[in-house]
Amino acid sequence: MIVNNNFTKTVDLLHRAMDATTVRQAVIANNIANAGVPNFKRTNVNFESELKRALETEKQRPALELRLTNPGHMADWEPRDYQDVQIRRVLDYTTTENNNGNNVNAEEEFNLALENQLRYMLLANSAAFEFSQVNMVLRNR
How far, in Å, CA of 101 to CA of 93, rounded? Predict the structure, then answer.
């Protein structure tokens, strides 16, 4: 998708965030379904923090940017395109919740599911608001 204005970028970001919440909901459901399985390790979804980092690189330029004189040289700074950020599933091997090696806390997963559902509703309302603003402008012409 070619991003050439704020509306397009905002809608694209909302779409990507909604995709991430959909994946997160499936991951949380899988974690809950396997809460009693010995040695099962829960999965997290990593997207928002990577997206934030990518968006911040658009604004940050170093005070002194090095000049490249050879194609083999590495740039000291390069902006990261937010569209390259992918939704990643990450296994949590570092914790253990139960004596059987499982690290799923069902109560925490249910809270995460509720939080994720509220996030999705907020994103959907934000997308609807963006389109209602365009609709309002088009009606007033």
Answer: 10
